[in-house]
Amino acid sequence: MCGIIGYIGSKNAVPLVINGLRNLEYRGYDSAGIAAVVDGKLIVKKDVGKLDEVFSKVDISNLKSNVAIGHTRWATHGKVTKENAHPHTDCKGEIAIVHNGIIENYQELKKELESKGHIFRSETDSEVIAHLIEEGMKTKNFVDAFNEMIKKIVGSYAIVAINKDGKEMIGARKDSPLVVGISEDGYFIASDVPSFLDETKKVIYLYDGDVVVVNKKIVIYHDGKPVERDIDSIEWDAEQAKKGVFKHFMLKEISEQADVIKRAIMQDDKIINEIANEIKKSKGVFFVGCGTAYHACLEGSYIFSKVANMHVNVTYAHEFPNYVHFLTPESLVIAVSQSGETADTLEAIRAAKAKGAKVISIVNVAGSTLVRESDKVLLQHAGPEICVLSTKSYTSQLAVLTLLAYSLAGRLEEGKSKLKELIRYIYYLTSRNTRDYIRKLAEKLKDVKDIYIIGRDLQYPTALEAALKIKEVSYIHAEGFAGGELKHGNIALIEEGTPCIVFTSKENEKEIISNAAELKARGAYIIGVGPRNNEVFDFFIKVREAEEANSIVQIIPIQILAYQLAILRGLDPDKPRNLAKSVTVK
Ligand code: AGP
Fold first, then answer.
1. How far apart, in whole angstroms, are the C-alpha atoms of residue 564 and residue 345?
2. What is the spatial distance between Cα 27 and Cα 340, in angstroms, rounded to a whole number?
């Protein structure tokens, strides 16, 4: 996800655009930039880093303009570099664009434009937009050239474009959000409402396929014909608006998981297959991570075993020093980390590199240290995760690991279609009526002291992750363990009414139900999560069978349960006590 904004009007556009980007930084923060029209010329200032870092590096003190566009980036195509930062311009620097989304056919467009003499400065997909408009303006005006460009690109986009004349600003959207803000002294076109909420609460939500042209007035086209769109008024304040309709980032990010899986599938097949080949070539693979990322590693080892018939070693990053002496230059360490800044994980990969081993990382934050220190990177594209708890980044990691396992088995397309089938179902799992149903369980559990969670096979790491979600956000003690471990000690903990969550699947239903019966026999309150209800369950959450993708769908109801327990206990789910979003110290 990236944040884009443009302003045209009677005020100085530069501070309005920069302030707008500041309110969009939750959408991405690995590079930023601005383009402004000054005396018939386009001035572009951009660099890598967070917003404040960038605009302290580049000099914008004398940048005054009535038209400007800006961008804060969440890298999808192309590394985090100054050249790849937006805005992007055409060859002559007379057209500037900012873009949020993925242009799927950019390689062929780029080749065609290069054959016509266009010179590209970046490795991004977005830059083709500026050159397509430039090509169109050889025979058309700015608006018509923009409309012609829209017809040529395939993929998801929210675009804002200006040119050196500074007479109009144009925006368009498909599958990426774009809104228009209407203030007394001008117009905004932006990814989201927070960007201009300090200036106006009057907003038009554009539809997919809309093109909006703003100069002295605003005209919206759909399929080339002018259309009317309602002007809404926003009731939120800026902070609230960043969460959209959600009260907390945690629920917003849980609800984004269908899109996150969609974006994980849109990975570059080339990168997936390349990394799968590295895994195949290596002698000894280690998955390392911490917390939720470790649970993804553990889950990944089960998926690799089942789908690719491959054994991988798994260890907490902070325990990795106990294994470093096994490493050789043929070893491969795969580090999993949302933030890419976890000190233990960084230390593990540095130790691995010191032994000559290769390091590949699965990371969400593109500009992170882990990305810079890895030999190869698989970006999760999950968008910024603001809540301290990892939710969407966990299911995104599982999706990426599943694709890797299928690629190793030579069945990548099959893996992608399996994940694609989940997308609609995950919308259902994160819907209001699922949340209302789970809230009934949260009401029952909100005052308990302990919650135990069991699962077998793929559901064992899910049990560990479920316990971590519940304990770190509601402060209720929760412990996950393998169903088979019950009689080896844990069952001593069960008393009358002890709540136990039991994950089931088609494959291990018989064994895990007998574990549930043993718990029930000692008075436990049994909550079943899986494809089929059973008389042993006192509460049942149905989650459709998804085989090795059970790990993705079955965790979602417990993420929601954890969130609701925190709310019912009067806690802030986004900022749990004693925790930080990224543990950058050992
Ligand atoms: C999980 O909800 C926690 N936020 C924490 O365990 C986290 O997963 C862990 O600190 C690893 O963080 P990383 O993925 O950024 O490396």
1. 31
2. 17
Question: Is 91 within 8 Å of 119 (Cβ atoms)?
Answer: yes
User: If you measure from the C-alpha of residue 479 to the centroid of ligand 1, how many angstroms do you get, rounded to a whole number?
Assistant: 17
| Spatial contact of 531 and 543, defined as CB atoms under 8 Å apart | yes
Secondary structure element (H or E) that encloses residue 127, with its range: helix 127-136
Judge whether 465 and 394 are in contact, CB under 8 Å.
Answer: yes
Predicted confidence band of residue 238 (pLDDT cuts 50, 70, 90): low
Architecture of domain 3-240 in this structure: 4-Layer Sandwich (3.60)
CA dist., res. 169 & res. 246, Å (int): 31
Positive/negative CA dihedral, 25, 27, 31, 33: negative
Phi, psi at residue 31, to the nearest 5°? Answer: -165, 165
Q: What is the pLDDT of the chain when averaged over all its residues?
A: 93
Correct CATH for 243-430 of 3.30.750.24, 3.10.310.30, 3.40.50.10490, 3.50.50.60: 3.40.50.10490
Residue of 338, 361, 369 to test ligand 1 pocket, by largest number of atoms within 8 Å of CB:
338
Residue in 539, 530, 368 with CA at minimum distance from that of residue 437 = 539
Q: What's residue 77's pLDDT?
A: 67
**CA–centroid distance, residue 393 to ligand 1 (Å):** 9
What pLDDT is recorded for position 29? Answer: 72
For the chain, give every residue range classified as CATH 3.40.50.10490. 243-430, 438-574
In whole angstroms, how far apart are CA 401 and each of 15, 194, 383?
A: 42, 34, 18
* Residues, the chain: 586
Chain mean position to CA 111: 30
Query: What pTM does this model have?
Result: 0.74
Classified as helix, coil or strand, 310 is: coil
Average pLDDT rounded to a whole number, residues 152-165: 95
To the query of whether residue 355 is one of the catalytic residues in this protein, the response is no
State the span(s) of the chain assigned CATH 3.60.20.10.
3-240
Query: Which residue out of 243, 280, 581, 586 is catalytically annotated?
Result: 581
Nearest-atom index, ligand 1, CA of 365: 15
Please, which residues have CB within 8 angstroms of residue 39's CB and are 6 or more apart in sequence? none
Whole-angstrom distance, CA of residue 347 vs CA of residue 326: 16
What is the second-level CATH architecture of the domain 438-574?
Answer: 3-Layer(aba) Sandwich (3.40)
pLDDT value at 342 more than 70: yes
